[in-house]
Amino acid sequence: MNQHAAPAPIPFIDVAAQRRRLGRAVDEAVARVTAHCQFVMGPEVAALEADLAKFCGAKHAISCASGTDALTLVLMAKGVGPGDAVLVPAFTYAATAEAVALVGATPVFADVDQATFNVTAETLGRALAAAKKAGLKPKAAIPVDLFGLPVDHARILDFARASNLFVLDDAAQGFGGTYRGKRLGTFGLATATSFFPAKPLSCYGDGGAVFTDDDALAAVLRSLRFHGEGVDRSEHVRVGMTGRLDTIQAAILIEKMKIFPDEIEARNRVAKRYGEALGKHVTAPQVPADRTSVWAQYTIRLAAGKRDGFAATLKAEGIPTAIHYRRPMHRQPAYARFPVAEGGVPASERLADEVISLPMHAYLDAATQDRVAQAVKRAAAS
Ligand SMILES: Cc1ncc(COP(=O)(O)O)c(C=O)c1O
After folding, report:
1. Which of 8, 31, 183, 304 is deepest in the core (most CB within 10 A)?
2. Ligand 1: which of 66, 93, 295 to mutate, judged by most atoms within 8 Å of the beta carbon?
3. Which atom of ligand 1 is nearest to the CA of 296?
4. Is the CB of 143 within 6 Å of ligand 1?
5. Count of other CB atoms within 10 angstroms of residue 309
6. Residues facing residue 342 across a β-bridge
7. φ, ψ for residue 64 (rounded to 5)?
8. In sequence order, which residues have a C-beta less than 8 Å from that of residue 122 and are 6 or more positions away?
9. How far out from the chain centre does Cα 221 lie?
């Protein structure tokens, strides 16, 4: 036997484990769609929308083709366009700012709080000042519930009301999380989420949804996602897009919704174990008492300069890591031309140098997690 064999690699997200639990139900759901052949806007789409709305308490759930489309559709519906400013975090996935740029408006980058990784009323305020200084018309804020942790919605909504902005919550990573006892989906004018395979609630490809309590907005979103259709498919009352969720993806999501609450609990158990094992060794993520996270990522912070060595040590032990995000948005080539908050975004820049995410999913068993924790402690100490 080779005493020095490298330890078996573990997955960052174990999609196969969920397949083992749910594969047959999902396969049967897909087979029902291939039997009835209504691949676009089949009955599963409306059924999923009803499930999603019930789950989060929103009046309307409008499924669509991706999280990016979910954001874009709301901006289109609200007529946001050239000359308008939309406040977005500098520390987020590109899609948040991308949706703003796609409608011809200007994303203005707000800093985040380094403890929660999220924008705050204060950091959005400094971005608002920069938007006004640039001569733009501030229209909206898109806070992101980053890594699964809800932002401080009450304070952000107060700020938005006082500043005459609408709030579009980007819950692509946070859907399923709660703020003051309520699931995300009802904070602000609308909430967008993504069903990309790495997200806590995911499908087998691309998908997304918008949530809103506003009847008129919901009707416009349904029209926009289907080429701006009017009373029927032969009438086009606005310029829309091919923004629908495929029936097959809806059928898959209906099955996944059945175990989503249980998976959220499992993710929280995993996060708690990480916190207990690692809290003294690295800067572990904190969850304020009035929210729960869905742990889209378990992201720790290391002293600047330690990250590459740390990742290499873990990799040698078969433990993958990921860096979300190595570059803040204002330093991305395609976004460097857009304004940055007054006073800059120093926390976003610092986090980009310090963060690293550990394996996180609902099926991470205690023994495997112990292996990760021991390796993290060794790597952090070296
Ligand atoms: C914060 C955030 N917003 C938006 C998106 C866009 O979602 P999608 O990839 O489904 O377009 C993602 C994920 O990719 C995301 O992480």
Report:
1. 183
2. 93
3. 16
4. no
5. 12
6. none
7. -155, -175
8. none
9. 20
| DSSP state string for 154-175 | HHHHHHHHHTT-EEEEE-TTTT
The answer to whether 165 touches 137, Cβ cutoff 8 Å, is no
Cβ–Cβ under 8 Å, residues 271 and 257 = no
State the pTM of this model: 0.97
Q: Indicate the angle between helix axes 43-56 and 247-278, nearest 10 degrees.
A: 30
Name the β-bridge partners of 297. Answer: none
Q: Which atom of ligand 1 is nearest to the CA of 99?
A: 4
Q: What is the pLDDT of residues 235-270, one digit of tens each?
A: 999 999 999 999 999 999 999 999 999 999 999 999
Under 8 Å between Cβ of 192 and 169: yes
State how far the alpha carbon of 82 is from the alpha carbons of 136, 228, 329, in Å: 9, 20, 20
Strand ranges in the chain using DSSP code E only, listed in sequence order: 60-64, 84-89, 106-110, 137-141, 166-170, 178-179, 182-183, 190-194, 208-212, 291-292, 298-301, 355-358
Q: What phi and psi values does residue 139 have, to the nearest 5 degrees?
A: -115, -40
Cβ contact 87:124 at 8 Å? yes
Whether 45 and 225 have beta carbons less than 8 Å apart is answered as no
The tens digit of pLDDT for each residue in 288-318 reads 999 999 999 999 999 989 999 999 999 999 9
Structure tokens at 62: 């409008």
**Closest protein CA for atom 4 of ligand 1:** 95
- Indicate the average pLDDT of the chain: 96
SS (H, E, C) 175-234: CCCEECCEECCCCCCEEEEECCCCCCCCCCCCCEEEEECCHHHHHHHHHHCECCECCCCC
In single-letter form, the type of residue at position 353 comes to D
**Residue of 194, 218, 179, 192 lying closest to 60 (CA atoms):** 218
Separation of alpha carbons 301 and 288, rounded Å: 17
Q: Are 219 and 41 in contact (CB under 8 A)?
A: no
Identity of residue 169: D
Distance in Å, CA 1 to ligand 1 centroid: 46
